[in-house]
TrEMBL record:
<comment type="similarity">
    <text>Belongs to the TrpA family.</text>
</comment>
<comment type="subunit">
    <text>Tetramer of two alpha and two beta chains.</text>
</comment>
<dbReference type="Pfam" id="PF00290">
    <property type="entry name" value="Trp_syntA"/>
</dbReference>
<dbReference type="InterPro" id="IPR002028">
    <property type="entry name" value="Trp_synthase_suA"/>
</dbReference>
<dbReference type="GO" id="GO:0004834">
    <property type="term" value="F:tryptophan synthase activity"/>
</dbReference>
<dbReference type="InterPro" id="IPR011060">
    <property type="entry name" value="RibuloseP-bd_barrel"/>
</dbReference>
<protein>
    <recommendedName>
        <fullName>Tryptophan synthase alpha chain</fullName>
        <ecNumber>4.2.1.20</ecNumber>
    </recommendedName>
</protein>
<feature type="active site" description="Proton acceptor">
    <location>
        <position position="51"/>
    </location>
</feature>
<dbReference type="GO" id="GO:0005829">
    <property type="term" value="C:cytosol"/>
</dbReference>
<keyword id="KW-0057">Aromatic amino acid biosynthesis</keyword>
<dbReference type="InterPro" id="IPR018204">
    <property type="entry name" value="Trp_synthase_alpha_AS"/>
</dbReference>
<keyword id="KW-0822">Tryptophan biosynthesis</keyword>
<keyword id="KW-0456">Lyase</keyword>
<feature type="active site" description="Proton acceptor">
    <location>
        <position position="62"/>
    </location>
</feature>
<comment type="pathway">
    <text>Amino-acid biosynthesis; L-tryptophan biosynthesis; L-tryptophan from chorismate: step 5/5.</text>
</comment>
<keyword id="KW-0028">Amino-acid biosynthesis</keyword>
<comment type="function">
    <text>The alpha subunit is responsible for the aldol cleavage of indoleglycerol phosphate to indole and glyceraldehyde 3-phosphate.</text>
</comment>
Length: 265
């Protein structure tokens, strides 16, 4: 049984006539204390959901900004258990905000699929997305997440095969992470959105709501993503970059998230 926080969030936003804004932050970047403040700042800025990374040495789906964030956290000595502690603290302060973990198979394997999913659930996470597991190998990850009581989230892209879209539709819950464009995460000035076929295929298979990620960095891009048919969008690199370059990281996150949130209304 999942936590139901995603369902409650999407229902609340639909009633308000808004799309969901997800904010991504790398846990432990640049250190544990600041990281806790940044999670609070994202919620205070208006993030409807949080997507959090666990620092890993070889994050293949991530562009240079988020790779740098992972490196800073690893240099600060941050461990997965530290990350679960940060999620626990965030959950206590923000009981209704969905928190999703985005991580990689090696980190999951270190604790075992069941052990990792259980630790995530006990910390208060709502979902688990293992970015480098292809859908054809995803069933055991979905089973482990579900048995721990959290939603398994999977990635769908405009170039995903029909079979892959059908698999992620049936295996996933909470939401479907839809890639806004090919490649790795990162800020882009262009948003080539042609997602009608993807979104209609997901709908036809009863997939969880589509949330667009990869390259969302302005309120206009947020609006474009929602107008293309997404239920929400996730911004990562823009937020991580704003934090990394600011004298007051929490204020920078709060301000950018508030600006991005205007695009959902």
């Amino acid at each position: 049984m999942s936590t139901q926080r995603y369902g409650a969030m999407f229902a609340r936003l639909e009633d308000a006539g808004e799309g969901a804004l997800g904010a991504f932050l790398m846990l432990g970047d640049p250190d544990l204390e600041t990281s806790a403040e940044l999670l609070d700042a994202a919620v205070e800025g208006g993030a409807d959901m949080l997507e959090v990374g666990i620092p890993f040495s070889d994050p293949v789906a991530d562009g240079p900004v988020i790779q740098a964030a992972a490196s800073r956290a690893l240099e600060a000595g941050v461990t997965p258990d530290d990350c679960f502690d940060l999620i626990r603290q965030c959950r206590e302060k923000h009981p209704h905000v969905p928190i999703g973990i985005l991580t990689y198979a090696n980190l999951v394997a270190a604790k075992g699929r069941e052990g990792f999913a259980r630790a995530a659930a006990e910390a208060g996470a709502d979902s688990l997305l293992v970015a480098d597991v292809p859908s054809i190998e995803a069933q055991p990850y979905a089973d482990a997440a579900r048995s721990a009581g959290i939603d398994p989230v999977f990635i769908a892209a405009p170039n995903s095969s029909a079979a892959a879209i059908e698999r992620v539709s049936h295996l996933g819950s909470g939401y479907t992470y839809c890639v806004a464009r090919a490649g790795v995460t990162g800020q882009r000035s262009d948003m080539a959105l042609d997602h009608d076929t993807l979104f209609s295929a997901l709908r036809s298979h009863g997939a969880p709501p589509p949330v667009l990620g990869f390259g969302i960095s302005t309120s206009e891009q947020v609006r474009a993503g929602l107008d293309a048919g997404a239920a929400g969008v996730i911004s990562g690199s823009a937020i991580v970059n704003a934090m990394a370059e600011a004298d007051d990281p929490a204020a920078a996150v709060r301000s950018l998230v508030a600006e991005l949130k205007t695009g959902t209304r």
